[in-house]
Amino acid sequence: MANLTTADILRHGIESAFRFQRRLRAKLNVLPNMPQATIVFHEGYEGIERSAGDIERNVADHERAQKILNYLCYEGCMDASQIVTPKTATINQLSLIHDFSYLSQLNEPEVGERIFGQGLSADMQRAGVEQQRLMTGGTIRAARMAISNVYPRRIINLGGGFHHAYPEGGYAFCVFNDVAIAVDHLRKHGFDKPILIIDLDLHQGDGTKKIFEHDKSVVTYSVHAETWYEAEAEANYDIALGPGIGDVAYLNAIRSTLPNVVHRVQPGLVFYLAGVDVAEDDELGDWRISHDGIFARDCLVDQIVGKRRMVVVTAGGYGRNAWRHTARFCGYLTAKLTKPIASDNERLMWFMRRLSKTFQVHDLTSDQNENEDDDFFGLFSGQTTKRTRLFDYYSYYGVECALERVGVFEHLRKLGFVSPRLEFDLDHPNGQAIRLFADEAKKILLVEAVLDEKTTANNQKLLWIEWLLLQNPTHSPSAERLLLPGQTHPGLGCLHRIVGLLFLVCVRLKFDSIGFNPAHYHVCSLARGQGYFENPADEAHYRVAQALTSGMSLQQASQMLCDGIRHGAQIFKWVPARMIIPISASAKAYPRSADYQREVEKIAAIEFKKFGRSRHHRQNKPN
Fold first, then answer.
1. Degrees to nearest 5, angle at CA 153 with 149 and 154
2. Given its phi and psi angles, is residue 322 left (phi above 0), alpha (psi -120 to 50 degrees) or beta?
3. Rounded CA gap, 151 and 27, in Å?
């Protein structure tokens, strides 16, 4: 706590006090005047881990549900004793929707490959089927609780939302259509009121639409990127917005349509598929909805549904940060908690900001071999001295200290580079260069960065990365990790530490943003959720590139865009342009502005029409 300011300590104390109060109330089950919700969860919701070489290895977070629950318990939104544990859906329940011939083939390899993709062993396939069967049981349990007056009006199942499953088979990671099964289960037990299914996953709920296309009592409402199932349905609202959508267009679309749908249907029960693969940091999606935008969407749905009873299921969301978007909404429903939840990158930046306060100015600016008197008298003697400090601030010794403190040197030592050597080239033709070599011989280059100071279009101070190389020449590429376009050697695995250091430079020297010109698609893809293109036309191009390569691995996507994607006479290729990672509050405001987002979406819609529709999943619908 020694390096925290008084304001930090006060804020931390207030948050801790409120958290303790919430925990006590949750333990005693007394949350007066708060909108309450009940959580349905089973430890079996933990997903399957993919094989090391599989495309989805780091995409589907198998701990997503557990992370959400841990957050809710930590914040005092609920007590662990209040969790409702579901039972696995029975074959009889599954057969309410799915053909028995399909259910009997779920252990067949070709069926598993069609649903989950390649890379699953028989045991992993069996585990995936059982996980979704258990989550389907959770949605059934949540639906039965929702129509009972014993429970709150909001029931949250920390799983489910498998809306691509058809009666005759599953695909796109969906084995069973849990919401459809829950609806038929309620119908079988006498619930005859109208039901509304609100699906705000990035992808259309095509399986659900197909299942209820002739049932006027079940209305499906879906806002998505692209309509996959085009057939007319008795009671269906499809709103396809196209690729690259941001907060403004998304929230306007929901706000202008959903209230009328709810008014017309007058549902006795609502199912809400609160998919978060619309997020700007989602590792499969191609939309740009912010963390605040998703929360605003969820609160809007809650407000529009009003006093009606609603079942919430998690639906899509991919990557290590997907859990936080859902957890924020769950925190609101259970304890009216509204504060944002930081992403991994935001937590890293917070840590770096705290760490920066532990650096002494003397450590960063002084040189152990520097003679300040010589420099002083040199000014009066007319002698010109060679630049010795990065941005006229950081000394050689200071950069060494920073590299050690943030763990770069330690990371290199673990890779076998025991004595890495730092080199300055501050009169580089393109800026100021810093290099890290494996040892004093300087024959093996590990890191090279060429930095400069520029300004943005709106005259803000920009830390410009002219060139950044991180490589491990002593390693060879593997079948599991192929070289990306432009790479000669595998990476070092410490990009986040290097970016963290640049963030510290921005904070200390008052830069508003970090900027760079990504030569290849994968470079800017690594800044997903943080960066944006300064020119709206370039941002639109990037979003179309995301849509056209959705479902591919990063290596495949980058190579495809490097070679060019052909559609008729048109060829879509990656075009480098200035990308910005905002640091200051004013820099962050620009890409969030309504004018910027509207311009991006307008250009993206025009450009996307030239190249046809994209596929957001690799799998095809069942025959």
1. 135
2. alpha
3. 17
CA dist 240 and 243 (Å) reads 9
Assigned token pair, 226: 């692209």
Give the torsion sign (CA, 527, 531, 535, 537).
positive
Find tokens 């062993």 and name the residue: 121
Quote the tokens at residue 580.
């910005």
- As a whole number of Å, the end-to-end CA separation of the chain is 62
Sort residue 13 into left (φ over 0), alpha (ψ -120 to 50) or beta.
alpha
CB 334 within 8 A of CB 72: yes
Distance from C-alpha of 103 to C-alpha of 120, rounded to nearest angstrom: 19
Q: Are 270 and 284 in contact (CB under 8 A)?
A: no
Candidate from 22-26, 77-81, 190-194, 428-432 with smallest mean pLDDT: 22-26
Task: Write the Ramachandran bin of 431: left for phi over 0, alpha for psi from -120 to 50, otherwise beta.
Answer: left
Strands 310-313 and 37-40: unpaired
Does 266 have pLDDT greater than 70? yes
Reading the block at residue 28, the tokens are: 């005693």
Question: What strands, in cross-sheet order, belong to the sheet with 513-516?
Answer: 421-428, 431-437, 445-455, 461-470, 513-516, 579-582, 532-533
H-run or E-run covering 561: helix 554-563
User: How many helices (H) and strands (E) would you count in the chain?
Assistant: 22, 16
Q: Pick the closest to residue 340 from 291, 276, 280 (CA basis).
A: 291
DSSP-derived secondary structure letter, 82: G
List the structure tokens of 584.
């200051």
Residue 419 has pLDDT above 90, yes or no: yes
- CA dist 83 and 503 (Å) reads 41
Residues found in the chain? 623
Q: Residues 355-371: pLDDT tens digits?
A: 877 788 877 887 765 54
Percent of residues, the chain, with pLDDT higher than 70: 87
